[in-house]
Predict the structure.
Amino acid sequence: QVHLVESGGGLVQAGVSLRLSCAASGRTLSSYATGWFRQAPGKEREFVAGISRGGRTYSADSVKGRFTISRDNAKDTVYLQTNSLKPEDTAVYYCAADSRGWPVRERVFDYDYWGQGTQVTVSS
């Protein structure tokens, strides 16, 4: 079992960057595939980016070229670097872990463990 805690969100202006962190305790995060999801008010939770157990990364088309997922095994933390933020990126961002590890899945119900989320608000 793994416990996930997100951090790094905030209120920013359009065009700036934030780095979100997902820190794990319990079982090591490199044992899982890890995904970042986001949920805007009134919308369904959507996949943003993921990294497999083996380190392969994937991003949703909506953020490709702006968001990058990475993992630091020594710190047992997965990061989401968000660049050139837009108002439409405003959402609660969640990290999640999938015990199967591979491939990276994009559906919410494929993930076993979830963090509590971190709010990102982008003003225009």
